[in-house]
């Protein structure tokens, strides 16, 4: 055999084995055609476990009932710190989750100087030919949804973020509205929704039109017709029957986005964060349940496409420093007590405002207020679901006598009496809070599907979009 023939045969053999190895590598590392990225804003491990405990307690049978995503085969923890602060904010944390880069507090997918934009995973997926959906229970121009499509130096630039949305090629936006829907740009008055329509978006704002949506070439901007403060969707605990929920929007988005090139979808449970800022435990567990129901919709889709789908559930940070235990109950707990709260703290504050119009802040007024507290929180005397101690009653009375509606923040208006009522209920259930702000604890990461093992263990939030991209690219 000549040297040349030996060389050719050797070359062919090596090429053949290389080809086989590549095929095996592709089989061992399949790509994700469908990617669901769920972000529970402010949702730490404690919020997840408290919700499970509540769900389990409500069965009355002593069984432990896990949330659907808690049964995902892979789980890990992610650090959340920002470039310039250990305890992060939603904009910086969201930028890390959307782009893979750390940035300073307040930046929307831009570098620490606020001058250089970062390409987001949603934008990269769109360039690849995938369809893209962005969904949130808060305003669609809020920090977390914004970081996937906008590039601004400050999260408070709502009008400019809205301009970025209107100019984008995202296929589906759904959930809340706009905090600043109108403004002026280069001397011209502009309405964001009209500008979006000019850029090819079909604007949907009724339940009938939402239900009638079918797959098409139109981009869709759906703003839930039932919004509350901050242009956000109603809290789950306050939603009336027939309300278009986060799960409903997720389901509709799947119908509209499903195509031969696949899709990338980000779904945010944004109001988990808001109620944790308010230390409202009962409303928190209902928000997590609502978020979990949206994940369950994606799981149903995954079961039909198990070899092509990745579902990831995480948080941008933890809010409130929720502890599973309280000085009041020590080692005891009863999460079923949370069910006695009938409305969110925000809704109760409105009830208080209406009540105040026809009543007075005095002893007689407090007796009437106790009736209102029993109706909405289960508080009262020995015959009430939750019998108040003398100390608890005095604490409520003190808050009542100092009645004030002036407390206002980014996350809603809260009266001191509302804070005290939700605090007493949380302590009785066996929960405690350490802050009204964010914390620096690591947050959970739950994954199922294609390449899900890569997300287990200890990672940083910047690793998440990089790993997601590896599953897509």
Rg value: 25 Å
Assembly state here? single chain
Rough outline = globular
Share of helix among residues? 25-40%
| The CATH top-level class label of the largest domain | Alpha Beta
The CATH architecture of the largest domain can be given as 3-Layer(aba) Sandwich
What would you call the structural class? Answer: alpha/beta
The CATH superfamily title of the largest domain: Alkaline Phosphatase, subunit A
Mean pLDDT: 92
Major sheet strand order: 7-8-4-3-11-1-12-19-2-20
Number of strands: 20
The low-confidence parts are 11-27
Strand content: 15-25%
Output the number of helix runs.
Answer: 16
Number of domains: 2
TL;DR?
The chain has 473 residues and is an alpha/beta fold. It has helices at residues 3-28, 45-57, 90-99, 121-127, 143-146, 158-167, 192-198, 207-212, 246-257, 271-277, 281-304, 345-356, 363-377, 390-401, 416-429, 463-472; strands at residues 34-40, 74-79, 131-136, 172-175, 182-185, 188-191, 201-204, 219-223, 227-228, 232-233, 263-269, 309-314, 318-319, 379-380, 386-387, 408-409, 412-413, 438-439, 443-449, 457-460.
